[in-house]
Specification:
By secondary structure, the protein is mostly helical. It contains 5 helices and no strands.
Length: 147
Amino acid sequence: MTPDVRQWLEKAEGDWHTANRELRARKCPNYDATCFHAQQAAEKYMKGSLLQHNASFPRTHDLAALLDLLRTLRNDWELLRADVILLTQYAVFFRYPGRWADKSRAQAAVAACKRVRAHARIVLRVSSGVHPRFQKKPRRSHTSRKK
């Protein structure tokens, strides 16, 4: 995997974790952000997958357009069409006043992103582990603090 592809995947993982964190938030969950970051994670995984195959792609948030490019490389991406159509709208749909995501939409966005993410990670041969940048840091015990 090239450093450029790795950077796309790191950014995708950041969005993935943000979407999940907002979905799980007990106080003041931001479901708009959940939907947005789910879309962003899928987009970055798809662009990283294209880059892995040295395929160029336009500056777009239209995941269906990216899917059409990916299908020329691997037809199995087509299985994700419904997911990418759902996610595409979330690039801008909830970013401005007048529209608000609810929990069920946020859950659907994360589920769709999960399927895109899983497929991309298989295609890119990414291990199932969490990227070290996003692993939980061990907590320091109060007895280990310096006095």
